[in-house]
Design brief:
Length: 402
């Protein structure tokens, strides 16, 4: 009998199932604990077997060292007398992402060839963006923004390896990002409270701790995703119910916001075809809504009511996208072709195709109460196109728009 299906063989295959993307560490923990409780399996797997990490002093020391290394990268301009503002803007993508890439490549037992390939792409990206800051200024801002998404895409590859075409692993990566965002927000809120209290206490003693606070804030911002990943990878922190609850709350709030904004825009007399600020707001709103739709759809146990809200959000997102594309087309015809308009047009076309492609599946899920598996599958299939677009903008824009 297949050991993956037989209860007594399943416990031995859990690390393999995680490696292949069939299970994540959290699910494996809960499955192992369930069978252990019901005396159906041998002793429970430990964290080291599941993720390569555990709650031992050694693992904590590794995570602490990773946070200090990220902080060292942040302090390079001060140590070597470089322009801090330019260095930070150019290299913000390389403080945390490479460390997370190294962990996931190690966890997934990537070959030396894969590690060398990812490292080469990272080094090439670092050299390119820093060279670009000395040769071009008009499109540097756009390249910097899209570089973040390109490096994030490399992180996604490291996460899903060795199954880069697995829809389940791609969706798990998106869920990991959602859970990590929530966890980082909680940690950073705690950090804000601690920072405020520290400042107030030392002010009573007339001691200026602002320089130390600046370093502390920087370390906290860099450490949050690393510590958050460590906690999530342990599988002992069940944050999914919180993520699901937030998805439900903010889906409803965003729908109310969009309806209110649409009514206000209708009676305001604003012309988004002429008002550049309104067009930028539209695009920002589109990105936020689309991110929320993905964030919500990848969570579990969504009621029919929440699915209906997601369908309404998707319908409004299509409407917003249509207006944005019309406005961009109008501005291209009347004001000419520029790098900014090219990037906004390309991004909106990508969004529009993705929304149209997934819309029937979401409506079907609302009507029949089926799962969102097909909708999520299309999200997973389409996701790499955004990474390719980010790379094209990062590298191609400086070449074609000198």
């Amino acid at each position: 009998m297949n050991s993956k299906l037989h209860p007594e063989g399943l416990i031995d295959d859990l690390p393999t199932l995680i490696q292949q993307g069939i299970l994540d560490a959290d699910s494996a923990h809960r499955l192992s604990a369930y069978y252990q409780q019901n005396k159906a399996l041998p002793p429970k797997l430990n964290d080291q077997q599941l993720t390569g990490l555990d709650s031992s002093f050694t693992s904590i020391l590794i995570v602490a060292s990773a946070t200090l290394f990220a902080f060292f990268l942040y302090k390079i301009p001060s140590l070597f007398k470089l322009n801090e503002s330019i260095f930070l803007k150019n290299n913000v993508s390389f403080y945390v992402f490479p460390i997370l890439m190294a962990y996931f490549l190690w966890k997934n037992k990537a070959s030396k060839t894969v590690v060398a390939g990812v490292s080469a792409l990272l080094i090439a990206s670092i050299i390119f963006i820093n060279w670009l800051s000395f040769t071009s200024t008009s499109i540097l801002y756009l390249s910097r923004i899209h570089l973040v998404f390109w490096v994030w895409g490399l992180l996604g590859f490291c996460y899903v390896f060795p199954s880069p075409f697995s829809h389940q692993k791609r969706l798990r990566f998106l869920r990991y990002n959602a859970e990590l965002t929530v966890l980082c927000a909680v940690m950073l809120l705690g950090g804000i409270v601690l920072t405020g209290l520290s400042y107030a206490l030392f002010q009573t003693l007339k001691i200026n701790i602002e320089p130390a606070m600046k370093n502390g804030v920087a370390w906290g911002l860099l450490s949050a995703p690393l510590i958050g990943t460590y906690l999530l990878e342990l599988g002992q922190l069940n944050i999914r119910p919180i993520v699901t609850m937030l998805a439900r709350i903010f889906s409803f709030l965003f729908l109310a916001l969009l309806i209110g904004y649409a009514i206000a825009l209708l009676f305001s007399g604003k012309n988004i075809f002429l008002d550049r600020g309104s067009l930028l707001t539209f695009n920002g709103l589109l990105i936020a809504v689309f991110s929320l739709i993905i964030f919500s759809s990848t969570t579990q146990d969504l009621s029919t009511f929440i699915r209906s809200i997601l369908a309404a959000l998707l319908s409004l997102a299509l409407l917003i996208n249509g207006f944005a594309l019309s406005a961009i087309g109008y501005r291209l015809i009347h004001y000419g072709f520029t790098a900014n308009r090219f990037v906004v047009l390309g991004g909106n076309i990508l969004f529009f195709i993705n929304l149209i492609w997934g819309f029937p599946n979401l409506i079907q899920a609302v009507k029949t109460s089926e799962s969102l598996a097909e909708f999520n599958k299309k999200i997973a299939i389409y996701a790499p196109l955004y990474i390719v677009w980010a790379l094209l903008v990062t590298v191609g824009l400086p070449i074609f728009f000198k």
